[in-house]
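Quick note —
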Amino acid sequence: MVLKYDIGIVGSGPAGYTAALSFRKKGLSVILFEKNEIGGVCLNRGCIPTKAILHSADFYEEIKNAQSVGIYADNVEFDFSKVIERKNIVVSKLRKSLELTLKNSGVNVVKSEAKIIDRNTIEANGEIYDCSKIIAAVGAEPRTFKGMEFDHRQILSSDDVLELSEMPKSIVIVGSGAIGTEWARIFSEFGCDVTIVELAENLLPLADIDVSKRVERIFKAKKIKIFKSVSVTQIEKSCNCLVHLSNGEQIESEKVLVAVGRTISNQEKVDGVIYIGDVRGEIMLAHYATKQALEVALGIPFDKTLVPSVVYGTPEIAWVGKREQDLADGTYTKSSMLISALGKSHCDNSTEGFIKLLSQEGKIVGAHIVSNEASALIQQVTIAIQNGISVEKLKEVCFGHPTYSEGIFESLFGL
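Predicted structure written out below.
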């Protein structure tokens, strides 16, 4: 028997489940296939579990330094197995909530590997499903390179590192993008000896140059060792790993985390099927995938040039729009202020960082923030850029005090 649906979706990550819920709002029948766990990489092996662990690391670091704010805590210790246990609880709770939301919305979920036969046919669990429209949101997987193949014990992917039961004494992190940077912060705050190896000239190579320089300064203060413009040529494994670098140096480390991004699988694309999310091979961010789903399902457009990036930890790092290194001299105005100029930062004992705005023809074209609450601050600027609000008009907005947001306001007067 052939089962008929209006919409068939393969993959239940942010792109897949957002599309499923959105199509149901339009009254269409939807079937959603997932071979692993509902929620995809973001919920189960990416954004959420990493941030849960990072919160524990930041909290531990804050307690260790609480004396500066008049709080005394002796013999502060951590149990990494409990950190992982809490991470699992958070993920499980959110996954169950998502499963219930899908069920209550009327999405039919099939937990099985699905094969797309043609533009209207899906095969799964021995059944054939005829769908008026098929969407593939099958995600991506950790990227590796020759000589750095994952063995899932010593050479780890971003999936593997979430399952560590003990904190290693030392680790080499290959790559300093968002994944590498966040894990460097986690390991460092838990007392692990961290070394970062980055092929590019700067850390966080996709960020503005001033952000990259500030991250390097923060990492050096944390005694994180940094190699830039250097690649890994070989990893020898015995009790520990011996990491060979292109500059001739060698690093001995208990573990190696290969954090060089993600790649789409080499599956054959089917004509007539709509591909959204990481499998598109564009910007591999959960919020980008969500916006793609809303565009496909509800026709809500979005500006693909204005996708904010956020790196979590203390302080947060966020940016949107154009970078200074991409703008020609004399074509833009720059305003930069230190977070330490804000009263709220001193109240919170969080004075590290800056806010940098770039403008052209009286409008903001880029924002780069290293600060507590940067993940929230960047949205204010994104809204302003996307709606073409002039700098002079933004000056008319009343910002609360004391807040980090007023740093945005103060920066306007430098443009």
